[in-house]
TrEMBL record, chain A:
Residues 37-142 form the Ig-like SoxY domain. The keyword Glycoprotein does not apply. InterPro entries: Fuse-rel_SoxYZ, Ig-like_fold, Ig_E-set, SoxY, SoxY_sf, SoxZ_dom. Residues 1-20 form the signal peptide. Transmembrane segments: none annotated. It holds the Pfam family SoxY. Keywords: Signal. This is Quinoprotein dehydrogenase-associated SoxYZ-like carrier. It comes from Pseudomonas sediminis. Residues 167-247 form the Sulphur oxidation protein SoxZ domain.
From TrEMBL, chain B:
InterPro entries: Metallo-B-lactamas, NDM-1-like, RibonucZ/Hydroxyglut_hydro, SoxH-rel_PQQ_1. The keyword Chaperone does not apply. NCBIfam families: SoxH_rel_PQQ_1 (TIGR04558). Pfam families: Lactamase_B. Residues 1-17 form the signal peptide. It comes from Pseudomonas sediminis. This is MBL fold metallo-hydrolase. Residues 49-230 form the Metallo-beta-lactamase domain. It comes from the Bacteria. Belongs to the metallo-beta-lactamase superfamily. Class-B beta-lactamase family. One of its GO terms (biological process) is antibiotic catabolic process. Keywords: Hydrolase, Signal.
Length: 249, 309
């Protein structure tokens, strides 16, 4: 093969790869920014095998349910990041599922306006698989007055956890809701006050999964995790004021 | 200059197009209906998705709800006067939702009556609802402002101009829902306690169980003809049958979802039974209702698991 053929082949391969790379399914002008800022510009692919479910529109911009399912990469997922690209506080969570947790999760968030949402799933080969969705919204979810703080006695309920374990075949789904205002610092001069760390542990204190939370997460946060097996678990939470809360499932 | 003329022509053409073309239809002796579409609020319909009625008495006219905008209210008042040649004596509001009350401005000088809780809810939520209507239907809303009721009504009999109306105070749709039966003709204005062939809406509902109980009280009234808040008029009980079926399905979906650990995103994609194929906007309203109602079902299905020490 002479050098001209090699160049042609290289050009062909390059063109092929460029064509094969899927375009941004939500065509967001903010993608490059978040790719650099949150993923350090690392290798990525837009990937519909990372399922990111959101409602088509936000009926309540303060409580928008999002659901991430990366079970297509079960056993290979190191981290899952989620963010809302046009939010004043874009970051939602940073989830490191251990081997006993499915790489899936559901949570509710605040959106300030219609926005693309992303779930970036880092697999053990170093590639980020990007799930994308878009939610329409009239807006104002991040700057709406606190519902929790308007309720009498909310301080006494701080850190209370409602929860339940649901048997799903061999596995268990864990759902919980924590009483917490999750103040994001954008409302009424109230400084940031939010749960920033969550760990799910087994009965021996071994960590099954870690989640870092950000104040895009709604008030009284709800969280759903899928556990492989049926072992007893403990949930440990800490907010940015150092309050710790624990619950057992 | 030509440009300006062209733009003027466009402008007047558009202003001219914003006409609700209200055509009152007589549905019983002295009872008229203005039937809206079963669609969602949109610039194409100016928010005219609602059923508005009026009843002619010996002395004048009783109006039931005033429509989605000032423009609608003005057209309504004009068509009432053209149809009956009588003045409007009283406005009765079935509940505080914007499509039913934002025509109030056109009835300045006429007593506007509602349940006390309706007035409270309208004072609390009216401006935000009106703002949302501007966003959804645009120019049709120009000049529309919230006008609060000036009189209270309670459950019981109300006599106006020799016409006896039976009023029922219900709660299932908004917490304060007035149903009105014209005794003489048996026409029942059900307000939004009845939606027919159009999916029901739940943003202020105190609970589907409350709503289901309301249906029993309402159906027991001596009605001959039913005007639902949204959807076609009937002389049979079909709207009651459909409402019970639909509310029961929605309640069961949310209850079973909560018991089985379903996520909101799973429920909004749940299959809608084939028998509701005629019910307009059922998917859209399911998405909304899951947001309004599911948190209560979730909390009921969960228990305290935090370490309390
Ligand atoms: Zn209504």
């Amino acid at each position: 093969m002479d050098w001209r053929s090699l160049i042609l082949l290289a050009l062909f391969a390059w063109a092929w790869e460029a064509r094969a790379a899927a375009p941004d399914p939500v065509t967001s002008v903010m993608w490059d920014y978040y790719h650099q800022r949150l993923l350090n510009g690392e290798a990525f692919v837009f990937d519909d095998k990372v399922r990111l479910e959101v409602p088509p529109f936000a009926e309540d911009a303060r409580q928008v349910p999002i659901q991430i399912d990366a079970s297509a990469y079960r056993g290979k997922v190191k981290r899952i990041l989620a963010w809302a690209e046009l939010n004043p506080i874009p970051r939602i969570l940073d989830f490191a599922p251990g081997e006993h947790l499915e790489p899936s999760l559901a949570i509710r968030i605040r959106v300030e306006q219609a926005t693309p949402i992303r779930a970036a799933v880092l697999t053990d080969d170093g590639v980020w698989h990007i799930g994308s969705a878009r939610v329409e919204a009239a807006g104002g979810g991040c700057t709406a007055p606190s519902v929790v703080r308007a309720e009498a006695g909310w301080e006494e309920r701080l850190g209370q956890v409602l929860g339940k374990r649901f048997e799903r075949g061999e596995d268990s789904r864990l759902r919980l809701q924590v009483s917490h205002p999750m103040d994001n610092g954008l409302v009424g001069g109230i400084p940031e006050f939010y749960i920033e760390q969550a760990e799910l542990r087994d009965a021996d204190g071994q960590v099954l999964g870690r989640i870092e939370l950000f104040p895009a997460v709604s008030e009284n946060p709800t969280l759903t995790l899928d556990l492989r097996g049926d072992q007893q678990t403990e949930l440990w939470l800490r907010d940015n004021n150092g309050n710790e809360f624990q619950a057992a499932f | 200059m030509r440009w300006i003329l062209f733009l003027l022509a466009l402008g007047t053409g558009f202003a001219h197009a914003l006409d609700y073309h209200l055509q009152p239809r007589q549905i019983a002796d002295g009872v008229w209906l203005l039937e809206g579409s079963t669609d969602n609020f949109a610039a194409e319909n100016g928010g005219n998705i609602v059923n508005i009625g009026f009843i002619e008495t010996a002395d004048g006219v009783v109006v039931i709800d005033t429509g989605p905008s000032r423009r609608y209210g003005e057209a309504l008042r004009q068509s009432i006067e053209q149809t009956t040649g009588k003045p409007v004596l009283r406005v009765l509001l079935t509940h505080h939702h914007p499509d039913h009350v934002l025509g109030n401005q056109a009835f300045a000088g006429v007593p506007i009556a509602a349940l006390p809780e309706t007035t409270r809810l309208l004072a609390e939520q009216g401006d935000a609802m009106a703002e949302n209507m501007y966003r959804l239907v645009g120019d049709w809303m120009r000049g529309t402002e919230v006008v609060l009721p000036t009189e209270e009504v309670q459950e019981g009999t109300l006599e106006i101009g020799g016409t006896r109306l039976q009023l029922l105070a219900l709660r299932g749709h908004t917490g304060a829902d007035l149903a009105i039966l014209d005794e003489r003709t048996g026409v029942l204005f059900a307000g939004d306690i009845l939606f027919y062939q159009r999916a029901l809406t739940t943003p202020n509902s105190p609970g589907l169980d409350v709503w289901l109980a309301d249906l029993d009280r309402l159906e027991a009234m001596p009605w001959k003809q039913i005007v639902p808040g949204h959807g076609p008029v009937t002389t049979d009980a079909a709207p009651f049958v459909q409402m019970r079926d639909y509310l029961g399905w929605l309640d069961g979906l949310l209850r079973q979802g909560a018991e089985q650990g379903a996520e909101m995103n799973e429920l909004i994609r749940a299959p809608i039974p084939e028998r509701f194929a005629q019910v307009n906007l059922s998917r859209y309203e399911l998405i909304r209702s899951v947001s309004h109602l599911y948190p209560r079902y979730e909390r009921n299905a969960m228990g305290r698991v935090d370490r309390q020490d």
